[in-house]
Amino acid sequence: FTRVGGIEARIRRQNSRRDGLLFEDYDVADAIVRYRRDGGVPLQFVADLSRNFGASKTARAAGEAPQKNNEGLWLAAVLGSTQSARVRGEYTFARVDKDATVAAYATDDFFWSTGWRGHRGDLGVKVADHMAVHVVGQLQRFKDSPRPEERGHWVRRYRTEFRVVY
C-alpha cells in the first residue's frame, strides 16, 4: 500500500492513533490454509494469518513497541451443509490487530475488520431445495480503539438470514 494518506478517512479510521498518526509502511504477507472433506458429513477448516512486516517504523514514531499490533488471525470450522444435507454449523474466531493491514481485512461487516476481536456462530437449516434459514450470533469488541473506554466493550449481534442458492 502506497499513498496511505490519500485513502478516504472512513476506510482508514480503524488504523488511526490518538494523535492522528497513520502507518505509512504496509508490507503485508497473507497466508490461507484450507482443509475440506466432502462426504456424508462435510467438514471444512480455514485459517488465514496475515502479518505486516513494515510496522516497525511508524510504531516507533508513535511511541509503541515495534511489531506489536501487526497480525491478523481468522479461523473457521464448518460442519455439515444446507445443500447436500439438512443442517450446517459454523464457528469463526477473528483477531485482527490495528496495523495488520489498511482496514481491508473485512468480510461482510465492518465489525470484522482491522482492530477487532470476536466470535461468530452460524446455524443453518435447509427448508427447501436451494433455500436455508440461518441464525447468526456475533460477540465482538473494538480491541484497538483509539478510545480506551471502548476497548473492553463487547458488542452482541443476532440476526436471521434467509439464503437462496442458485
How far apart are the first and last residues' alpha carbons, in Å? 36 Å
Order of helices and strands: HEEHEEEEE
Class by alpha and beta content: mainly beta
**Number of domains in the coordinates?**
1
Question: Low-confidence runs (pLDDT<50, min 5 residues)?
Answer: none
The fraction of residues in strands falls at 35-45%
**Number of helices, counting only DSSP H or I runs of 4 residues or more:** 2
What is the arithmetic mean of pLDDT?
A: 80
In spatial order, strands of the major sheet run 1-2-3-4-5-6-7
Fraction in helix: under 10%
User: Main β-sheet: number of strands, strand sense, barrel status?
Assistant: 7 strands, antiparallel
- The total strand number stands at 7
Short structural summary:
With 166 residues, the protein is mainly beta. The chain has helices at residues 9-12, 56-61, and strands spanning 28-37, 43-52, 71-80, 87-96, 117-128, 131-141, 154-164.
List the helices and strands and how they pair.
Blueprint: H1 9-12, E1 28-37, E2 43-52, H2 56-61, E3 71-80, E4 87-96, E5 117-128, E6 131-141, E7 154-164
Antiparallel strand pairs: 1-2, 2-3, 3-4, 4-5, 5-6, 6-7
What does this structure look like?
The structure is a single chain. The longest helix is centred in the middle third of the chain and has 6 residues, at 56-61. The protein starts with 8 loop residues before the first helix and ends with a strand. It has two helices and seven strands; from the N terminus they run αββαβββββ. By secondary structure, the protein is mainly β. It has helices at residues 9-12, 56-61; strands at 28-37, 43-52, 71-80, 87-96, 117-128, 131-141, 154-164. 6% of the residues lie in helices and 45% in strands. It has a seven-stranded antiparallel beta sheet, with no helix packed on it. It has one domain (4-164). A hairpin with a 5-residue loop joins strand 1 (28-37) and strand 2 (43-52).
